[in-house]
Amino acid sequence: MGARKASKDPDRRIGRRALLIGGAAAAVGTGVLARDELGRLWWRMPGVEKPRKEGEVDFAGARWVAASDANWRRADRPDDYGIDMVVIHVTQGSFDSAVQVFQDPEHGAASHYIVRKDGRITQMIRELDVAYHAGNRDYNERSVGIEHEGFVDRPEGFTDKMYEASARLTARICARYDIPVDREHIVGHVEVPGTDHTDPGEHWDWERYLKLVRQARATVA
Q1: How far apart, in Å, are the Cα atoms of 30 and each of 23, 27, 52?
Q2: In what order do the strands lie in the sheet with 63-64?
Q3: I need a surface site. Which of 38, 70, 160, 162 has the fewest CB within 10 A?
Q4: Higher pLDDT residue, 46 or 123?
């Protein structure tokens, strides 16, 4: 979350114009545009819904606690939006307060995961779906957001267990979507274009973290 709350990311709606453009493009043989747009939007058609299992998690061992559905939007990633980035956040508060605000429909933001100081991982939004966590629509659509319990100015809160658990989580995400383990693809919230957030802050040990992610990535089949 960082210093300030992320801004809302308005949902994309399928309209008559989009359908007409897609249909026209397909009709004249320029179906690339149509396939791309309709591939992202087909599941928004009335009566179409991809099957989901309630409480299912993407990371083994994570605990499921659902975020308010006002703080994310349904998608079919990576088929509709490719995932090529992980965004690292710090909650600027306790684990419990982060869960509370992510369940608040008025908050307007939530991340896919929260990592507690003791290394416990909670998933609140499926990786399939677009979480409103980065304050930038493009980054929301292409990334997985991971919050870490603590404060940017209190490095003692970034425990060994937190670093290690988060690194295993990020390594698994990188393996799943073939994301390179480097600072171009694993970024801090502060690095997202247009953001006014400061997390994870100067005390987040990027060298240590990337080393742990690479070690964990090497063990992922």
Answers
A1: 10, 8, 33
A2: 63-64, 121-123, 113-115, 143-148, 85-88, 186-188
A3: 160
A4: 123
Tokens 């966590």 identify what position?
A: 133
pLDDT value at 71 more than 70: yes
Are residues 98 and 91 in contact, defined by beta-carbon separation less than 8 angstroms? yes
Give the residue-averaged pLDDT of 53-63: 95
Distances (CA, A) of 25 to 14, 44, 78: 16, 20, 24
Q: What is the largest CA-CA distance in the chain?
A: 61
Beta strand spans in 101-159 (E): 113-115, 121-123, 130-131, 143-148
Q: Are 144 and 83 in contact (CB under 8 A)?
A: yes
> What local confidence, expressed as pLDDT, does residue 220 receive?
78
Residue for token pair 């600027």: 92
